[in-house]
């Protein structure tokens, strides 16, 4: 699998990053590391991974936004009063949690809840983009710094 995705370069990275930001349990950091160690352009690698991951998160957000009533009423069986309390809490504190939407396990549901609770698209995009860009930038920096240290050692 590693060799297959790595052989597709940036399109493979985009696809994996996109899918990793949906409710499918995947990770894309390993491919970022592999591509950087294979001497791909660091800025392009971070940009492609961030773009794919943000678009995947936005897809999850849209599922929550437009499937929200069905999800909350039929599947999760949340009553109106509980939903309104959750909306007030999320409006006050919760949307900032989108900064950590890159975290495994909790990140994708945060994007889904952001859609269900109708977080504004601009706010959602800014918070998610900031968090995901920071994550891939740190992964790239650590990878390149580690490779330099190993080369010198």
UniProtKB/TrEMBL annotation:
Signal found in the keyword field: no
Domain of life: Bacteria
Pfam families named among the record's database cross-references: VTT_dom
Coiled coil: none
Signal peptide residues on this chain, from the entry's feature table: none
Keyword terms, alphabetized: Membrane, Transmembrane, Transmembrane helix
TM spans (from-to): 12-36, 43-63, 96-117
Residue ranges of domain VTT in the record: 34-140
Record-given protein name: DedA family protein
Taxonomic path: Bacteria, Pseudomonadati, Thermodesulfobacteriota, Desulfuromonadia, Geobacterales
